Structures are given as structure tokens and as C-alpha cells.
Amino acid sequence: PISVKGLNHWFGAGEARKQAIFDVSLTVERGSLTVLMGPSGSGKTTVLTLMGCLRDVQEGSINLLGHELFGASRDMNENLRRRLGFIFQAHNLHSSLTALQNVVMGLQVHGALSPAEEAEAARHALGLVGLSDRMDYLPGNLSGGQQQRVAVARALAGNPDIVFADEPTAALDRESGMSVVAMLKKLGQVRGTTTVMVTHDNRILELADRIVTLEDGRIVKDTGEGG
Ligand code: ADP
Ligand code: MG
Questions:
Q1: Pocket residues for ligand 1 (CB within 6 Å)?
Q2: Which of 26, 95, 133, 197 has its CA 20 to 30 Å from the CA of residue 104?
């Protein structure tokens, strides 16, 4: 579902222009769990956001679910984005909406479900992350770990083809962190959901099918493709 070739990326303009990504290439297998590792500033988030159509590709090629992102129109990217789930560090929950309403709102961008189906899918996703008994809580009344799990539920509720996660376990205790990643891994096996995740968490590495290490914007180590 993801094939990256010769990816380069720059930030800034004029004299401040600085290359952040250098000749990154990788092909990710369907249903696999790929972990991106590397020191702070090594380019993990940049690569993840480029693959997730959250940034325009400046140079090189990214084929996502059969679509080339280089030179792609905004409309096409909008359509592709509906097939993706995002779990980012700042979980961006709406503080005035309950856990259930936050997940439903994530589903409404799909526009494919009736309100009853949306609520059903949202309840199911919240059940998956162990929050069946917290669905009607506002984020402010949930712990950091529970808020993160709402964000996970929101990313999974639409049954995405690919999940992009940037340090999804950072705010979680050991047990919930492992259960979130184990769940993503299981979704890969049963639904073919592909996950690309940035993490510093050593415990997660043993669940990964593949570990790609970045340094200074380059891939310096790759344990290989597939599972
Ligand atoms: P990581 O996620 O591995 O910590 P990033 O992808 O966030 O690394 O950053 C890679 C490099 O690109 C860093 O040198 C960072 O300073 C730079 N960078 C990232 N985002 C921006 C931005 N919006 N503007 C300017 N430089 C950026
Ligand atoms: Mg980052």
C-alpha cells in the first residue's frame, strides 16, 4: 500500500532553506506493522506526514494505495485521507464533546454512514480500546492515557486501510501502551490494516514486523520488508 522512492524534502526558504529528508526509499507490505525509529530531529514525523498526504511531496515519489502523491491534487489527497487513520501525539480531542461524540466526528468526514451507523461504529471502536464505560465522558474527565485511547478509537473507527501513528503510546502506561499496539498488530492480521508508527518505546519493537531507523534524514538501518 505504500511505496516511497527517492524522497527528498526541504524546510524554509532562501538562506534558511534546509534539507530535512535525503533519498528515502521504502516499500511497506499490507497488514504489516512498521516502526520508524531515530533520534529527535531525524525526520520521522516529516516522513510520516509526507506519507499521510499531510504535506506536499517536493521531490521523489510516494505511491499510496495505488495513487501517486507527487504533483497530486488536493481533491485526490482529500479522498485518500478518508482511507487513512491518524494517531498523533497531540490528540486534538474536542473538549466540549464526549468521547463518543469525538469518535463520531472523526467518522463524519467519511460521510458514508447514517448517524445510527456512525454511533454504532464509534461505540465498537471505543470498546476495542477498552473505553466502553467512558463513552459519555468529556476529555477533561479522562486521564491522559484514556484520552489517547479515544484518539486511537477515532483513528480506527472508519476502518482505515493505513494507520499513521506518531508516538501513540507516549502518554500511556506500559499496559495500555502495549495493548494499543497489540490491537493495531491484530487489525493488521485480521483486516489487513497497515500501520506505520513512530516510537521510542523499546517494548513495542518486539511487536514490529519491521524497524526502519532514520538519522539526519536518512535511512541508516532497515530490518527488511514484510513480516
Ligand atoms: P523527528 O520527528 O524525527 O523528531 P522531524 O521530522 O520533526 O524529526 O524534523 C526533521 C528535521 O526537519 C529537523 O531538523 C527539524 O528541525 C526540521 N523541521 C521539521 N519540521 C519543520 C518545520 N515545520 N519548519 C522547519 N523545519 C522543520
Ligand atoms: Mg517527531
A1: 11-12, 20, 38, 40-46
A2: 197
